[in-house]
Amino acid sequence: MPQVNWNDTRNLLSKITVRRFWNGIKVLSSFYVSRILNKPIQWGYPVSISFEPTTSCNLRCPECPSGLRAFTRPTGMLQKDFFSKTIDEIHKELLYLIFYFQGEPFLNPSFLEMVKYASAKGIYTATSTNAHYLTDEVAKKTVESGLDRLIISIDGTTQDVYQQYRVGGNVSKVIEGAKNIVKWKKELNSKTPFVFFQFLVVKPNEHQIEDIKKLAKEVGVDEVRFKTAQVYDYETDPNKLIPTIDKFSRYKKNADGTYTAKNKLANRCWKLQHANVITWDGLVVPCCFDKDALHQLGNLKNQSFKEIWHNDNYKQFRSELKKSRKNIDICANCSEGVSVWKDD
Questions:
Q1: For residues 191 and 179, what is the distance between their CA atoms, to the nearest angstrom?
Q2: Sign of CA dihedral 154, 133, 95, 230
Q3: pTM of the predicted model, to two decimals?
Q4: C-alpha distance from residue 256 to each of 239, 243, 253 (Å)
């Protein structure tokens, strides 16, 4: 069984206030009441929110809209004043801030200032990075910002393998960036951020699963996690990314060579109940699978977050999901239940 990192767990639990605990109870209760009554019930406010620092990215990963420069929505940077205003409204209920969606967070020049602002509100903060910008100076500032969790995406231990998915990337920079973070945690005697290597398992790198475990120990990161890959054209897998190791695949291979998604897509969704996503320009969307913000439930430039959470658009979306989740386009490729594996 995967081991629990008690330092990280205690850190998260320390962020729970009476108000956040009560909000969590309301959200969890509404999820089960909704299942029992078979109709959408929503009490409380999100426990977790993903806030997008930017849609810009330095890499060109083949299954990522940022990497492919294929967004139908504009590219831009989250502004610090807008972020602060939103956090001021929701921080008393909010426990967990996932500070990424699309793009590379460290490209936003105000990113660490915003992390520091959220941390000062007692919110658990996490981000994901390709680690190309974690210079010695930036690593020091990252540790000092109060960031609680740092996910470093590293999808290969050698350059020839790494660059097959992380197109335009340099694995040596990733390793150097990770070492800089580990160094400054020690120098500053800081238990945060909790750092883990995230290894996106695809066919070109699946033979390096044991190698990434060894590399993680050498660098000194806290954990390794293996993530299943979302493949857009998964039925035929034209880019040949779906791994042959079944437990690391979101898809099942059929006798004719095509693939189908493993998820059965029950007409319920815990993520929709307790979390959502805010784009850099203030659009509120259901979850991280709506990369182009096609299901816009509200705009924070026109309404407050708490108004949006209970508005007619949200009610309609929740109703549609309860009726037929499989007919919602962003749900078709959902990884719920088959997404992330910890190193045993």
A1: 15
A2: negative
A3: 0.91
A4: 18, 17, 8
Query: Coil, strand, or helix at residue 306?
Result: helix
Predicted local confidence at residue 1, as pLDDT: 34
pLDDT band at 72 (very low <50, low <70, confident <90, very high): confident
pLDDT at 67: 58
Grouping H, G, I as helix, E, B as strand and the rest as coil, residue 313 is helix
What confidence score (pLDDT) does residue 2 get? 42
The label of the residue with tokens 């972020």 reads 83
- Cα dihedral 318, 323, 326, 327 in deg (nearest 10): -90
Which residues neighbour 130 within 8 Å (Cβ) at sequence distance 6 or greater?
57, 58, 59, 104, 152, 153, 166, 169, 174
Beta strand segments in the chain, E: 48-51, 96-98, 124-129, 149-153, 194-201, 223-228, 251-253, 259-261, 275-278, 283-285, 298-299, 340-342
The residue to which tokens 């910008």 are assigned: 133
Q: How many CB atoms lie within 10 A of CB 107?
A: 17
Q: Supply 59's token pair.
A: 């890499």
Quick: pLDDT tens for 186-196: 999 999 999 99
pLDDT above 90: residue 232: no
Residues 6+ apart with CB under 8 A from 2: 342, 343, 344
d(CA 33, CA 221): 41
